[in-house]
Amino acid sequence: MRLLYFAWVKEKTGIAAEDVALPDGVATVGELIAWLKTRGPEFAQAFDRDEVIRAAIDQTHARHDAKIGGATEIAFFPPVTGG
Amino acid sequence: MIRVQTHDFDVGAEIAQIKGARTDIGAIVSFTGTVRDADDTVTEMTLEHYPGMTETELAKIEMDAHARWPLQASLIVHRVGTLKPGDNIVLVVTASAHRDAAFDAAKFLMDYLKTSAPFWKRETGPGGDRWVGAKATDDAAASRWSARKDAAE
């Protein structure tokens, strides 16, 4: 599964994109965030305030309780600030 | 129509393009958002986005506007990359037979764009770089439209 990071989430993780194999037991966006936090200090810091992290599953906004299912691309980013 | 681009846009040329030779449009509203430096704290603004999702979200927002108001045409242009204070960031144009639809749809497009299109602003100033934070007032502005829709249903 492809993971993408944007804005300060990208700066904190230190990477823009990566391919990962999801461990068993990760079924929702929130569970994916909880797992990402365990992947080292950069990820723990990037996802520290997980309530402010927004996510998109296959380029559609998704809540933390959304099921990942057979998604090919999941993105994490701060609240948007365009316009 | 939607466009995401690094280069500037010409508001007059965009409106002329929308009008073309049409005579059925009675009202054209345009909104231009520019880089603000109100107190000498911003020397540059960089706009990052999520290629692919940005276009999908903008197209969705535009479709919603057309479903709510009798629009004859609309345009959203959003710039990305590094901009300077005073530079154009975003353009929204709506065309309708009457002004109310054009005004309301333009505000709707901006309100939703600000809360759902995946763009992020980073400001550079004398004190360094900082990511611009999202505003609760923007969420409130966007949610007013769904409240109105609920009330109408």
Main sheet of chain B? 4 strands, mixed
Across the major sheet of chain B, the strand order is 1-4-6-2
Tell me which oligomeric state these chains represent.
heterodimer
Mean pLDDT of chain A: 96
Q: Give the class of chain A from helix and strand content and strand pairing.
A: alpha+beta
Helix content of chain B: 25-40%
The helix-and-strand class of chain B reads alpha+beta
Supply the CATH superfamily name of chain A: Beta-grasp domain
Name the beta content range of chain A.
15-25%
What is the CATH architecture assignment of chain A? Answer: Roll
Q: CATH first level of chain A: which class? A: Alpha Beta
Please, how many domains of chain B?
Answer: 1
3D shape of chain A = globular
Q: What's the count of strands of chain B? A: 8
Radius of gyration of chain B using CA atoms only: 16 Å
Low-confidence regions of chain B: none
> End-to-end distance of chain B, in Å?
28 Å
The CATH class designation of chain B is Alpha Beta
Give a structural overview.
- The complex is a heterodimer of chains A (83) and B (153).
- Chain A has a single domain (2-77), classed as Beta-grasp domain (Ubiquitin-like (UB roll), Roll), CATH 3.10.20.
- Chain A is 25% helix and 23% strand.
- Chain A is built from three helices and five strands, in the order βαβααβββ.
- Chain A has helices at residues 7-13, 29-36, 41-46, and strands at 2-5, 17-19, 54-57, 60-62, 73-77.
- A five-stranded mixed beta sheet of chain A has the order 2-1-5-3-4.
- In chain A, β3 and β4 form a beta hairpin.
- Chain A is globular, with a radius of gyration of 12 Å.
- By secondary structure, chain B is of the alpha+beta class.
- Chain B has a single domain (2-142), classed as Molybdopterin biosynthesis MoaE subunit (Aldehyde Oxidoreductase, domain 3, Alpha-Beta Complex), CATH 3.90.1170.
- In chain B, 39% of the residues lie in helices and 33% in strands.
- Chain B has four helices and eight strands.
- Chain B has helices at residues 11-19, 53-68, 99-116, 136-152, and strands at residues 2-5, 27-34, 44-49, 71-79, 81-83, 88-96, 119-125, 128-131.
- In chain B, α2 (53-68) packs antiparallel against α3 (99-116) and α3 (99-116) packs across α4.
- Chain B is globular.
- The two termini of chain B are 28 Å apart.
- At the A-B interface, loops of A face β3, α3 and β7 of B.
